[in-house]
Design brief:
- The protein is an alpha+beta fold.
- The protein is built from 13 helices and ten strands.
- The protein has helices at about 15-55, 70-80, 85-95, 100-115, 120-130, 135-150, 155-165, 170-180, 185-200, 205-220, 225-240, 285-290, 350; strands at about 250, 260-265, 270-275, 285, 300-305, 310-320, 325-335, 345, 355-360, 365.
- The strands form two sheets. The chain has a six-stranded mixed beta barrel. A three-stranded antiparallel β-sheet has the order 1-10-9, with no helix packed on it.
- A hairpin with a 4-residue loop joins strand 9 and strand 10 (about 365).
Length: about 375
């Protein structure tokens, strides 16, 4: 059919419409195809760039739970075996080397709560607390150490030192005295000797410091610096220690039956049977005997060792006599639970008031020399 310019009512004839609109659709299709091709090319190029970038990028480093790799490894191992004593000690040691003392206390406390006591770990905790200036807390941990092993002289001066730092001079003095009592030689007593004068005065017992120094040099064979000698001599004069020193002489021999040394001790005219025990830092009174002798506890609760048992009781003071030997204001501790027939243990707080103490064959005390 031949095409004309138009049809009736403005409509285009079919051949003309086919020509015009077919060409338009063709052009539209080509444009769409071109745009699609460009987008695909861009996407492929982007993937190639990302791929090359990933090839050049260093693999990410695994994130550690602690900035220090050694500590991080120990923490991971500890988590797998939380009650392993070797691991927790290693962790505490490494943290301590890095001055991370608060974390030592934190991890050790978690160990104690989960796994129970571990006295060797307490050493690390004590040191950490001392570095943090938390001395009262250190005393609590030192008490755990002492209660586990009351026979080591070091543990007692550790606690004595921290009690002194915590403004508890009476308790510190009692601990230093037990440190001396536990010592077989000057090596064991030298640390207490270097510190006892610092607490004797504040404790209101300056002469205890004087007698401690005399015991250290005369019985344990120790040597002290000149400044300590001058300080002790000055205290002896200013506190009039000669008036509080022991008087008389007593020789006490072991019994044939059990090798213990027993003595009749009088306090205010009340006589009791005591076992002589130089390993007891503070003289011990049974509570019923103290009541009969009208000795009343005046001070804080202290600890001492007597008859190889750790004893805890109330601090007091009393004048005592053993035969011809006597001493004023002897520091004693009133306790419960002594064996039947024993009213107390005569310890160092009585014995070292005498100028001469001979422990080679039984016990001989002699006040013939000036303090």
């Amino acid at each position: 059919m031949r095409c004309t310019k138009g049809t009736l009512e403005g409509f285009m004839c079919p051949p003309c419409a086919h020509k015009r609109y077919g060409r338009r659709r063709l052009m539209t299709g080509l444009k769409v195809a071109g745009v699609t091709a460009v987008l695909v090319a861009v996407a492929i190029a982007g993937l190639l760039i990302v791929g090359k970038s990933n090839q050049r990028r260093t693999p990410p480093v695994p994130k550690l739970r602690d900035k220090d790799p050694t500590v991080a490894t120990l923490l991971d191992s500890r988590d797998l075996a939380p009650c392993d004593k070797k691991l927790i000690r290693s962790l505490a040691d490494e943290l301590g080397k890095r001055d991370r003392h608060a974390e030592v206390v934190e991890h050790a406390s978690a160990f104690f709560a989960k796994c129970g006591p571990f006295p060797r770990l307490e050493w690390s905790v004590v040191y950490a607390l001392q570095q943090l200036g938390r001395y009262a807390e250190a005393v609590k941990h030192e008490t755990v150490i002492i209660e586990n092993d009351p026979f080591d002289s070091d543990y007692w001066w550790w606690r004595g030192e921290d009690r002194a730092r915590s403004n508890q001079p009476e308790l510190a003095l009692a601990d230093y005295r037990q440190s001396f009592a536990n010592s077989d030689s000057a090596g064991g007593g030298r640390f207490a000797a270097a510190r006892v004068l610092d607490v004797a005065g504040p404790a209101g017992r300056p002469c205890e410091g004087v007698w401690a120094m005399r015991f250290f040099t005369g019985v344990l064979g120790g040597e002290v610096a000149d400044d300590l000698v001058r300080r002790a001599d000055g205290l002896a004069q200013s506190a009039q220690c000669a008036q509080l020193a022991g008087e008389g002489v007593a020789e006490l021999r072991p019994a044939a039956a059990d090798a213990t040394i027993r003595a009749q001790v009088s306090i205010g005219g009340t006589v009791g049977t005591f076992v002589v025990d130089p390993r007891a830092g503070t003289t011990v009174l049974a509570r019923d005997y103290a009541t009969r002798a009208s000795v009343v506890g005046r001070g804080p609760t202290i600890q001492t060792v007597a008859n190889n048992v750790l004893r805890t009781g109330t601090l007091a003071a009393a004048g005592m006599a053993v035969g011809d030997a006597r001493a004023k204001e002897v520091e004693v501790v009133i306790v419960d639970g002594l064996p039947p027939g024993v009213d107390g243990y005569l310890g160092l707080s009585f014995l070292w008031k005498f100028a001469v103490i001979d422990l080679s064959d039984g016990v001989r005390i002699d006040a013939s020399q000036a303090p």
